[in-house]
Write a structure and sequence with these properties.
Layout: E1 22-26, H1 30-42, E2 45-49, E3 64-66, H2 73-81, E4 85-88, H3 95-101, H4 111-117, H5 120-129, E5 137-140, H6 143-153, E6 157-161, E7 171-174, H7 180-187, E8 192-196, E9 202-210, E10 216-218, E11 222-227, E12 230-236, H8 243-259, E13 264-273, E14 276-283, H9 293-296, H10 301-309, E15 323-329, H11 330-336, H12 343-348, E16 352-356, E17 367-374, H13 378-392
Parallel strand pairs: 1-2, 1-4, 2-3
Antiparallel strand pairs: 5-8, 6-7, 6-8, 9-10, 9-11, 9-13, 11-12, 12-15, 13-14, 15-17, 16-17
Helix pairs in contact: 1-10, 6-7
Length: 396
C-alpha cells in the first residue's frame, strides 16, 4: 500500500504538485490510459476510479483501480484520500461525488468547467452570456416549446438532448413535416436544445491548456472529419485556413478557457462558416482530436494535461511534423474477418504509429484504438492514413 504525500491537507490553489505525488482519475477509459502513460514519464503515481468493473484500459496501468458506483461515498472517500489532485476523463460525472472529493484534493480542470460542459443547455447559455459565437438556439422542455422554437428559428434545425450527449448521441435533425409531438416522445428527454442547422465549410478544434498560475498554451488548429457523428480523421496543421483565421480560433478557445477558470485542458470544437467561427461543443479534458499530439508534438496533450493540473510549467506544444490521426473503431475488426486487422502492414510503414487501448470486445462504433501517420504535408498524411486503413481492414 502507498499513501498520498500530502494527504493531511488539500493543496492550495497555486501549489505545485510534484512527483511522486498521486493523481486520481475518475473514469477508466483510453483518455485516462494515455494520461497515465504521459504522467508515468514524469514520475507520478495513479489511482483510477472506474464504476464499470476491473481491468479498465486506464486501470491496468494504474497503481490501483477502485471499482465502485459513483454513489458509494465510502469508496469515493477512500479514493480521494489517496490523491493529491483529481481529474476526470469524461464529463458525465455526478456533481455530488466531486463536492465530496474536493474536500480532500483539488479537482481539475475545475468544477465550473465541468458543470458548464456536461449539459448542453448550460453550455449554450454560457456561450451566449459571454458573447462567444454559436449557432442560434432555443431551450425546450416539452413538445409545445419545441414547435414554437422551430417556428422562431425557421428552416432546418437539430434537436439535442441537454444531458449525456457525445459522438452524436441524443441528436436528431428535424425535417419539414416532422411531427414535433412524436419527435419529443421519441427523444424521451426532460430538456433539450434546438439549434439552427449550420452550413459550415469545415469542422475544427483547438485544445488549450491553463494552469493555476494562469500560464496558457494552445495546440495547433486541427481539421476534423466525422463519419456517423464519430470522429474519423484529424489533420494538423489544418489545411485551407489562413493564419488570421487560425489565430482567431486560438484566441476564441483561450477566451473560453479563461472564462471557465480552466486548470487543465479544454477542447473547443468549432464550425468555420463564411462569416467566421462558431463554437459547437466544449470538453474540459484531453480530446480525441488531439491524439495526434502523442506522436507529432513536442509536448502531447496528455503530458500537458498532467502538467496543467499539477500546476507545473506548461510544455511547448509545437507540431514537429504534419500528421493525420485515424480512429480505429470496432468496425475494422468486423471488416477484417477472422484473420483480424493486418497490424504488420501498418507497423511496416516508416512514419506510422499504432495505439491500441486494451479493450476486449470490438463493437461497431466503439473506439478500440487509433493510428497516426506523419508526412511532408497534412494532405499527404491523410491520404496515406486512408490507404493504411483499407489495408489493415483487409479491404484493399
Amino acid at each position: 500500500m502507498y499513501c498520498s504525500a500530502f494527504m493531511s491537507a488539500v493543496s492550495s490553489k497555486n501549489d505545485v504538485i510534484l512527483p511522486p505525488a498521486t493523481i486520481g482519475i475518475l473514469g477508466g477509459g483510453q483518455l485516462g490510459r494515455m494520461s497515465i502513460m504521459a504522467g508515468r514519464k514524469l514520475g507520478y503515481r495513479f489511482v483510477v476510479y472506474e464504476p464499470k468493473g476491473p481491468n479498465s484500459p486506464a486501470g491496468v496501468l494504474a497503481d490501483e483501480e477502485i471499482n465502485a458506483p459513483y454513489d458509494d461515498m465510502d469508496a469515493l472517500r477512500t479514493f480521494a484520500q489517496k490523491c493529491d489532485v483529481v481529474t476526470y476523463e469524461f464529463e458525465n460525472v455526478p456533481s455530488g461525488p466531486l463536492q465530496m472529493i474536493s474536500s480532500y484534493a483539488p479537482v481539475r480542470p475545475g468544477a465550473k468547467a465541468l458543470h458548464t460542459c456536461q449539459n448542453r443547455r448550460r453550455e449554450k447559455q454560457f456561450l451566449q452570456d459571454n458573447n462567444f459565437p454559436c449557432a442560434p438556439f432555443a431551450i425546450v422542455n416539452n413538445a409545445d416549446e419545441l414547435q414554437s422554437a422551430w417556428r422562431q428559428l425557421g428552416g432546418e434545425v437539430v434537436l439535442k438532448s441537454a444531458d449525456f450527449g457525445y459522438d452524436g448521441k441524443g441528436q436528431r435533425k428535424l425535417e419539414a413535416g416532422d411531427d414535433t409531438a412524436k419527435v419529443w416522445r421519441e427523444m424521451n428527454v426532460e430538456a433539450a436544445v434546438l439549434e439552427k442547422w449550420i452550413r459550415f465549410k469545415g469542422e475544427y478544434s483547438v485544445i488549450c491548456a491553463r494552469n493555476a498560475n494562469g500560464d496558457e498554451m494552445a495546440f495547433p488548429l486541427t481539421a476534423n472529419e466525422h463519419r456517423n457523428h464519430i470522429l474519423h480523421l484529424s489533420q494538423a496543421p489544418a489545411r485551407g485556413v489562413d493564419a488570421t483565421r487560425q489565430m482567431e480560433a486560438e484566441e476564441l478557445a483561450m477566451g473560453i478557457a479563461r472564462a471557465l477558470d480552466v486548470e487543465g485542458l479544454i477542447a473547443v470544437e468549432l464550425f468555420l462558416t463564411d462569416e467566421g467561427w462558431l463554437v459547437n461543443e466544449m470538453a474540459p479534458r484531453p480530446h480525441n482530436s488531439g491524439h495526434y499530439s502523442f506522436d507529432a508534438c513536442l509536448t502531447s496533450q496528455f503530458e500537458q494535461h498532467i502538467r496543467a493540473i499539477c500546476n507545473l510549467p506548461l510544455g511547448d506544444p509545437r507540431l514537429l511534423s504534419p500528421v493525420a490521426m485515424v480512429n480505429l473503431l470496432g468496425d475494422v475488426w468486423k471488416a477484417a474477418g477472422e484473420a483480424g486487422p493486418d497490424w504488420p502492414t501498418l507497423l511496416r510503414h516508416p512514419r506510422a504509429k499504432l495505439h491500441l487501448y486494451g479493450k476486449d470486445a470490438p463493437k461497431a462504433g466503439r473506439k478500440m484504438g487509433h493510428f497516426c501517420v506523419m508526412a511532408d504535408s497534412a494532405g499527404e498524411a491523410a491520404k496515406e492514413a486512408e490507404t493504411l486503413l483499407q489495408q489493415i481492414s483487409r479491404q484493399a
